[in-house]
Amino acid sequence: MDAATRCRPARVTPPAQSLNNSLLAAPAEHGRGPSSILPARRRPDGYVQPEDIVQQSRAVRSLTSRPYAINLFAPQPAVAPADPGPTLAILERFHAALGLPPPVIPATAMPDFAKQVEAVLDAAPTVFSFTFGIPPAPVLEAFRSRGILVVGTATNVREAQALEAAGVDAIVAQGSEAGGHRGSFGGSFDAGMVGTMALVPQMVDAVRVPVIASGGIMDGRGIAAARMLGAAAVQLGTAFLRCQESSAAAAHKALLREARDESSRITRAFSGRPARAIPNELTATLEEAGAILPFPQQHGATRTLRAAASKQNDTRFMALWAGQGIGLSREGSAADLVRALVAETDAALSAVRG
Fold it and tell me: For the whole model, what pTM was predicted?
């Protein structure tokens, strides 16, 4: 079975890995819609650890026999750390407001990628996907040799062509509307701020592997539009943030309920990498002071505060991930949303065909 055949019409990939994915997997799968493709969930105070991958893969498999995926951040080139003093001074005030000790940047802010890969290979998901770049060739070959589909993320045509040259089976076209971290890696960040409507058809024309549309897709109209532009599948994240199974904080969901197309914007304040979220006191203060460290140093500096804010339901300091389609978000179960998306897509495509 080739990659085009095995790429289902829809994927569920939450922004910044902010859903309780093992709980989301089964309801979404049993909604009789397309297979959900899920990322490994991160810890509240950092990114997914190898042991988390093992545990959550078992949880997903205990709930469904349908295909699923594990998504990781590709390893990044080493960046010289910056002086953390100004950033930590601001964060210390915010820590005090939540009753936390002064912030400390850990020596290692990111998990060991090689150990993550070992855990994913042991879990043997249907799909291994990645963002922020391209993993080393031996890593990709290890997955291909085991029959695991390999999917990369691109924010422009040049990145897509690099992924195709690396041998991926499919490419996620991440439009600028998407919530959470930007997957840009091939040049300047601005070069990757291409909208989904413009990005998908150009990428489809430029590569031979299936393209998965992502960014601003919230309902059947968006799915139908992406399919007509040539996408083999679509990826939805923000659309699922208000679902019952989402582990987004209650206050975050409440903000999403009132959010509109202009509510989110790009910030580096949370991790040092560009990401789309709803602004709050944390982003405004750090940006105004220019107190933003390189990735992953900034992530290490802010992660304890963000985790505590989520637990305390305090939107001033949590990462309020959201894409530009948030005004179309809905409440309810993941299964009901998947069923609605399938019905809406069928109706939209039928209307076009006349």
Answer: 0.91
